[in-house]
Structure formats: C-alpha cells, structure tokens
Design goal:
It is found in: Periplasm. The protein is α/β, with parallel strands linked by helices. It is built from 16 helices and ten strands. It folds into two domains: about 180 residues, 3-Layer(aba) Sandwich (D-Maltodextrin-Binding Protein, domain 2); about 110 residues, D-Maltodextrin-Binding Protein, domain 2, CATH 3.40.190.10. The strands form two sheets. Strands 2-1-3-10-4 form a five-stranded mixed β-sheet, sandwiched between helices. The protein has a five-stranded mixed β-sheet with strand order 7-6-8-5-9, sandwiched between helices. It starts with a helix and ends with a helix.
Length: about 350
Amino acid sequence: MKTTLLTRRVFTSAAALAAACVAAPALRAQPKLEKTKLAIAVGGKAAFYYLPLTISEQLGYFKAEGLDVEISDFAGGAKALQALVGGSADVVSGAYEHTINMQSKNQHIQSIVLMGRAPQIAMGISTKAMPNYKSLADLKGKKIGVSAPGSSTNMVANLVLSRAGIKAADVSYVGVGTAAGALAALRSGQIDAMSNTDPVMTMLEQKGDVKIVSDTRTLKGTLEVFGGPMPAACFYVQADFVKANPNTCQALANAIVHGLKWLQTAGPSDIIKTVPESYLLGDRALYLASFNKVREAIALDGVMPEEGTRTALKALASFEPSIKADKIELGKTYTNEFARRAKERFKA
C-alpha cells in the first residue's frame, strides 16, 4: 500500500514538473536581455520607408520581446545618425548606406535587421518652378529639397545628378522633412525639385505638382537607378553594442521580423487602422495609393542580401570621393545572425 502511494506521489510530481516545462517554453527560450530600455532614433517616421518600425511599435511587438522603446523622430536620417554618434540613441532606424559612410570615417556601425529592400525614394521636378524643364542639366544652380542634408534622400539625388555630370556643389540642398513641410516647401516655390519618400512623392505626383525623373519605389526602378538590389531602411547600432548586447539585438530583430511577417498579409484597411492618423496627411485614398506603390519595396524577412551591400558601396563610391571601395570591409557593416534566427522563428 505504502509503495503504491509513494509511486503515485512520484508519478504526480513528475507529471506536474513535465506540465510546467511544457507550459513555460517561452521562459526558457527567451534569454535575459542585457538592456531592456532603448532609445531609438529615426528620421521621418511617418514615411513608408519606416513602416515596419511603426507596425512593430503599434502592434506591441517590442513589448512582446521584453523591450521598452522610446522612439525619437528627427527631420532626416543624418540627424538620427548624429543622435547615435552623440550617445543619445542606442539604435537607429535608418538607411543602410550610413554604415558604409561611417566606416570610411573609421567609425563602425552595423546593421542588425533589414526593413526595406528598395530605397522608396523618388526625385521630382516642380512643374510650377520649372515648367520648361528638359533634362537634369537644367537643375544646375537650383534648390533641391531633401529630408535632411546628408540623408538617403540626399544620397539618391547626388547619385542621379552625378550621372548627368552635376556635382553636389552645383546645387543647393534644402532640408524639408518627409511630411506636410515637404509638401508646403515644393508647392510654395521654396525649392525647384525634390528627392523624397512616400506618401509625400505620390501625393505631389498625383496632384500634378511634380514630374518624376528618377524612381526607386519599385524593385524595377531601383534596378534601373542602382544597377542592382539596393538595401534601404535597417536597424543599425554601434558595432560594440552588438558584442555587448546580443540578446537585446536578437529581441530587436525579432520585433521587426514579426512586423514584416504581419505586413506580408496585411490589407490596406489593416494599415489605415494601425498607423497614426497624422501619417495619412489628410488624404486616406492617396495614402493607400502610395502604399500599393511601395509595398514590394518592404523587406520580407529582415535578411540583408550580400549583393545589395555591394550595390550600395558601388553607388556611394561613384560620387563620394572620400569612400574608397577597396578600403571598405562590407562584412563588418552588417550581420544576418539575428535576422536569420527571427526569420526561422516567425517563418517569415
């Protein structure tokens, strides 16, 4: 009788332990985060360029990974980069090419998860300021609006102009942001042309305010401008941060890839319900038209394509004399370690 009771007790305890193990796989699977409170800098959060960041934030995917994020929105990517270099931000949601640019200045930053597989930047000429525009050569001496000087919108403009023999010093770049201020700057005649993201460019295009002369909002357009795949928005951090905070980097990648997975099946109405009302710039129909235009430019799984990093280096070196292609170690500008794990977890 005693033996039977003891056996039953042992069996019950073992069963309870097994049930506890089954019930708490997540507790064992989630390693302790080195840093839970993070400051994220972004330049123009309302742009579709950064939609995966907004989706992951609005749907609580950062919280689900144990992260408490504070997102600061700057006028452009160059300002967000300054926040990282200055120490007021831990992470930047910004253009991949900054990792190459900074390495040329002996400062090492690294992409940990990709959000965009095309720059989503279009360049347009103001139909009001330049009604007789014939070719890019006409832009010499003109004012060109960009999100912020030194940002990816500026980089695309430099690349497009350089192919027409126009140097950066031959034009004046004006920072106009990526939202209502950009629309106002072009419509009021403060600038003659603009290189910017959606939804701004689609809104100007559909109202007849600009004539598009270069377009990287689609994969086909990106191939025409850059000659290959061109990675765009990513999360980048200081290289030392990756070494010191691998679990935190994994949590960040998880949150973004979770958002990318959601975006693959989200319908236009889902997007409208999820993003803040102010992002729509007062025109839902145009916002949705813009989304449909850039949808394919959003990354699918967070993994950085090696070929894309080579395209970015070639593009930057073509107009930026300080970047010597043979001196840049592309392998140090990104890691796919975290994105690959997140891709497997979310089946992205």
